[in-house]
From TrEMBL, chain A:
The active site is at 49 (proton acceptor), 60 (proton acceptor). This is Tryptophan synthase alpha chain. The gene is trpA. It is an enzyme of class 4 (lyase). The alpha subunit is responsible for the aldol cleavage of indoleglycerol phosphate to indole and glyceraldehyde 3-phosphate.
TrEMBL record, chain B:
GO terms for cellular component: cytoplasm. It comes from Actinospica durhamensis. Tetramer of two alpha and two beta chains. Residues 81-407 form the Tryptophan synthase beta chain-like PALP domain. It is an enzyme of class 4 (lyase). The gene is trpB. One of its GO terms (molecular function) is tryptophan synthase activity. This is Tryptophan synthase beta chain. HAMAP family: Trp_synth_beta.
């Protein structure tokens, strides 16, 4: 069992959802992002996603776009991202890379998988890579013992959910709503339905992301999902902080709030 | 459409029947194309859009072989868009070029460019799919104007995304779109040009896909767009081939077109792909010169990668970040190119060369002064390319070559840019 699977199984054994937090590498700086990821883990996040900043983030809303653009403007590269992964993974928390596909293909598919594994990374989430395009990545991930998370959406047919869950290792990412990353006022009602439809096809844990931003929403999602994924709300804490130290405090506080919520969700 | 222009599944296969390696048009979800550099095209897009892309692919395949759809499209093309477009022999330009130059007058289409062909096709498909809202991206504004036009004609809500930088360069087209009732949303992310407008349109589509269709403006993007846009643009070459035969009694020696995302070029090329004697030339935007790094020549100055849903030639750095493109022409200012051009390049069937801003503007002025035609700056790249290849072809053939130039659009929208370039008052 991979470390990621173990952590998800442990949460399940405690009858709670796992908490998964996203932050982009390189924001507010390379070292600052390592510190923020660590603050998140100290606050109670079980699994982290390190975003690889990309010039054309089609699936991201304004909050993540802003942080990612700042990281790119400061000159972040894939090599720096791997250093951030190393810094986060050293805590023992399973550390995934969230990336659009082209930076990985350009780095070299197998070379990236090897480097990610060497940095202690647990696997990847690749939002613009569908299973039909993923043969090379699946081979590389397998060769280097990495988990591979693919996404299902509300518009996915049963056939596509079957196809996607078939190649998922670690967990399945269920996109809770139709849209891009960002915080929303309410959790979409159909997320629960998507999780149920996904479970018809797989034993792999199903984690829900997109739009979850506070404890109330996290508890709501934790009631029916194996994991709750929070991104933009963490990034916003960093963006709105007057300085790096208070950003870390705010990130840790949000992680604590969410960690409590995922433990309350099923009661 | 004219009789032999019906677009059916058989065309793709027929056009490439003679080439090797064969493209693989089958794929269970799309039409990946295999070239010597590996798999091109594809569908690198979020899962949330797969249902919409599948729905669109199905609608497109059905319409291809549906006589009623073709009759409807033909009706609008003939009675609304002003097809067939003229073929004009450019006598005075020919004398200067040392080649017989024939201009395919897409500039005379309603709305002023080749973009209307594709848009009418996609708007009719939108109606067939029962969707009421369309979105589009635009660079030069020509695709946006064509989309706003079709939306007015077919009573659809229309939102156009346009890079902030382009709304400035092509202010006249912004006014046209708004006059036609479309909402124009300036995009201030990234490089504030076409690529960022596409990102924003994709974000809108993911959010509103249930009732929205994305009218993609060029023969790039995820499947089915490259094939579908080609099929709707293909009428350019079909007409021009016939018109050239009628006028000269023979096929042209070369076809020249400008290449942004590649829709007018693939539209002009496709009917000629099986004609091995016809050389196909795509002219990319060379900006300040490929060697300066300030250009939009994805094939000549880029490398294979994935952008906006397809594997093709793109401008990228060593870490796969898209590099900003540069061109005096907003419509060519895009760091990618349609995958079918990548394929034609890889197999050596078409040749792609960069044309600099300066060369394009010189050709722009020359066409104005010799023929009384003000071309779009995009199209001026094709004219400049034709002037460049004329002596080469003449030497190779030992006679006056016949060059068919696709004049993809008219230059009204570019008057500010051109006046500024030439230091004139507007
Ligand atoms: C007149 C004209 N020609 C060419 C282009 C470039 O697009 P494509 O390469 O898809 O033909 C544009 C794009 O806006 C245009 O307006």
């Amino acid at each position: 069992m991979s470390k990621l699977a173990e952590v998800l199984a442990a949460a399940k054994a405690e009858d709670r959802a796992a908490l998964i937090g996203y932050l982009p590498a390189g924001y507010p700086s390379v070292d600052g992002s390592i510190a923020a990821l660590r603050a998140m883990i100290e606050g109670g996040v079980d699994i982290v996603e390190v975003g690889l900043p990309y010039s054309d983030p089609q699936m991201d809303g304004p909050v993540i776009q802003k942080a990612v653009q700042a990281a790119l403007d400061a000159g972040i590269t894939t090599l720096d991202v791997l250093r951030v992964v190393e810094g986060a993974a050293a805590t023992g928390a399973p550390t995934l890379v969230m990336s659009y596909w082209n930076p990985i293909e350009r780095f070299g598919t197998d070379r990236f998988a090897a480097a990610l594994a060497a940095a202690g990374g647990a696997g990847t989430i690749l939002p613009d890579l569908i299973p039909e395009e993923a043969d090379d990545w699946i081979a590389a991930a397998d060769a280097h013992g990495l988990d591979r998370v693919f996404l299902v959406a509300q518009t996915s047919t049963g056939e596509r959910i079957a196809l996607t869950t078939e190649v998922c290792r670690g967990f399945v990412y269920a996109a809770s709503l139709m849209g891009v990353t960002g915080t929303r006022d309410a959790v979409s009602g159909s997320a629960k339905d998507l999780v149920a439809r996904t479970r018809e096809h797989t034993e792999v844990p199903v984690c829900v992301g997109l739009g979850v931003s506070n404890g109330v929403q996290a508890a709501e999602v934790a009631a029916f999902a194996d994991g709750v994924i929070v991104g933009s709300a963490f990034v916003r804490r960093l963006i709105e902080a007057p300085d790096e130290a208070s950003g870390l405090v705010a990130v840790r506080a949000l992680a604590e709030e969410l960690a409590e919520a995922v433990r309350k969700g099923r009661r | 459409m004219t009789d032999d222009s019906a677009f059916s599944d058989a065309f793709f296969a027929a056009s490439y029947a003679h080439v090797s390696p064969q493209p693989d048009p089958a794929g269970h979800y799309g039409e990946p194309v295999y070239g010597p550099s590996g798999k091109l095209g594809g569908r690198f897009m979020p899962e949330a859009l797969m249902a919409a892309l599948a729905e669109l692919t199905e609608a497109y395949h059905k319409s291809k072989n549906d006589p009623a759809f073709q009759a409807e499209l033909t009706h609008w093309l003939r009675t609304y868009a002003n097809r067939p477009s003229l073929l004009t022999e450019a006598h005075r330009l020919s004398a200067q070029a040392g080649a017989r130059i024939l201009l395919k007058r897409e500039d005379l289409n309603h709305t002023g460019s080749h973009k209307i062909n594709n848009v009418l096709g996609q708007a009719l498909l939108t109606r067939r799919m029962g969707k009421k809202r369309v979105i589009a991206e635009t660079g030069a504004g020509q695709h946006g104007v064509a989309s706003a036009t079709a939306a007015a004609l077919f009573d659809l809500e229309c939102v156009v995304y346009m890079g902030e930088e382009d709304t400035r360069r092509q202010a006249l087209n912004v006014a046209r779109m708004r006059m036609l009732g479309a909402e124009v949303i300036p995009v201030s992310a990234g490089s504030r040009t076409l690529k960022d407008a596409i990102n924003e349109a994709i974000r809108d589509w993911v959010t509103n896909v249930e009732h929205t269709n994305y009218l993609f403006g060029t023969a790039a993007g995820p499947h089915p767009f490259p094939s579908m846009v080609r099929d709707f643009a293909r009428i350019i070459g079909v007409e021009a081939r016939k018109q050239t035969l009628e006028l000269t009694g023979a096929l042209p020696d070369a076809v020249a077109a400008c290449v942004g995302g590649g829709s007018n070029a693939i539209g002009a090329f496709h009917a000629f792909v099986p004609d091995e004697s016809v050389r196909l030339y795509g002219f990319e935007a060379g900006g300040s010169g490929v060697e300066t790094g300030l250009h939009a020549a994805s094939i000549t100055g880029g490398a294979v990668g994935v952008l906006h849903g397809a594997r093709t030639y793109i401008l990228q750095d060593e870490f796969g970040q898209t590099l900003p493109s540069h061109s005096i022409s907003a419509g060519l200012d895009y760091p990618g190119v349609g995958p079918e051009h990548a394929y034609l390049h890889d197999i050596g069937r078409a040749r792609y060369e960069p044309v600099t801003d300066a060369e394009a503007m010189e050709a722009f002025r020359l066409l104005c002064r010799t023929e009384g035609i003000i071309p779009a700056i995009e199209s001026a790249h094709a004219v400049a390319g034709a002037l460049r290849i004329a002596p080469r072809l003449r030497a190779e053939l030992g006679r006056e070559p016949v060059i068919l130039v696709n004049l993809s659009g008219r230059g009204d929208k570019d008057m500010h840019t051109a006046a500024q370039y030439f230091g004139m008052e507007v």
